[in-house]
Design brief:
This protein is an all-beta fold. The protein is about 0% helix and about 45% strand. The protein has no helices and 26 strands.
Length: about 350
């Protein structure tokens, strides 16, 4: 395998802003390629073009030492959870044989919660040891989708969203992964997608579309006061909240439609027609797949010499918000930001 690429992105793509003092680095998806930047939006780098445009997927998460990244991708056909070891420059694919995505690492970086969807069921929460994908076990069996898991700061609970995509009712649930007990934190009259929890465990940030609305915005939810507060109010979607440092700083990204060419289909984990439409079928559809983990080492792609024409219309932008002052700083084009503290080895 060729080495990992570290290439500066053209400055025309980046809006560097010196926001509140913050250490750490952010990994994120830009047009299906893994990127890294300093927490304030400076020093943007392409880490590697491993999967090509629009195959990066959703919900990256990094171990506390910064050595391992997990994320969802459809690079090999169908959605799977991938593990990227920066030192080993390898990829471990966790594939149940159906659909796997939305990975969340526990605070110790040892256990992984994700959503998995079978042919005869909606998404359910699964749990596995990061170093032993064969340990995967199903934690939920609900009447609607279970998705968007996130760990409590102490690692004692998994919070997730219960509710089908597009419906105007969602529940924020708390699951004890060891005892298997489930409790309701909040019922929302609307659709909740991504969630994150502050480092002190006292505040939730979530992507929320209230009943009757056409777009998603970022909201803050304080369970102690049962208070739901909008953070954004835009004509387009604002999604993927991620706390950074402490509960006073938050990343999110705007999400605007992109005009893709006819031959390019943007893989959507939530598109109900994705598997059933023959014109959008996946490699391997209809073949039997063992419900075990698989390993694959994918050859790193060279950086594309020319960006495709459709990328000119890509304008999803990562923002950093100071929740104390209300200042909102656009940082760079991209999505699904994942902040990690540099305490330990940063790749």
């Amino acid at each position: 395998m060729r080495g990992t690429l570290l290439i500066l992105i053209p400055l025309a793509l980046v809006h560097v802003v010196v926001a509140a003092a913050l250490d750490g680095v952010v990994y994120y998806d830009y047009a299906g390629m893994l990127h890294r930047m300093d927490a304030d939006g400076s020093n943007v780098e392409l880490v590697d073009a491993l999967f090509g445009y629009d195959d990066m997927g959703v919900s990256p998460a990094v171990t506390p030492d910064g050595g391992v990244l997990v994320f969802a991708s459809s690079a090999l056909g169908g959605w799977s959870v991938y593990r990227y070891d920066f030192d080993a420059e390898s990829v471990l694919v966790y594939d149940s044989g159906d659909w796997d995505g939305l990975p969340a690492l526990d605070p110790a970086g040892e256990r992984l919660a994700c959503a998995s969807m079978g042919d005869d069921s909606g998404a359910e929460i699964h749990l596995l040891e990061l170093d032993d994908p064969s340990s995967a076990e199903r934690l939920t069996e609900l009447d609607a989708w279970a998705r968007w898991p996130v760990w409590s700061p102490d690692g004692g609970a998994i919070y997730y969203v219960h509710g089908d995509p597009g419906e105007d009712r969602s529940e924020l649930l708390r699951l004890d992964p060891d005892e298997g007990t489930i409790g309701t934190v909040k019922t929302f009259r609307g659709e909740v997608k991504e969630i994150d929890i502050s480092p002190d465990g006292a505040l939730f940030a979530l992507t929320y579309r209230h009943a009757g609305a056409d777009t998603f915005d970022i909201y803050l939810y304080d369970p102690a006061d049962d208070e739901l507060t909008p953070l954004t109010a835009e004509p387009h979607d604002c999604v993927a909240p991620c706390f950074a440092g402490d509960r006073s700083l938050l990343y999110y990204n705007t999400e605007l439609p992109v005009e893709y060419p006819d031959e390019h289909y943007y893989n959507d984990f939530y598109d109900p027609d994705y598997r059933s439409n023959p014109e959008k079928s996946l490699p391997g559809d209809g073949e039997e797949t063992a419900e075990t983990e698989t390993e694959a080492v994918l050859e790193v792609e060279e950086t594309p010499d020319d960006e495709p024409a459709w990328l000119a219309g890509y304008s999803n932008t990562i923002h950093l918000v100071d929740l104390e002052t209300g200042e909102d700083h656009p940082l760079t084009r991209g999505e699904n930001a994942c902040w990690c503290d540099p305490a330990g080895a940063t790749p």
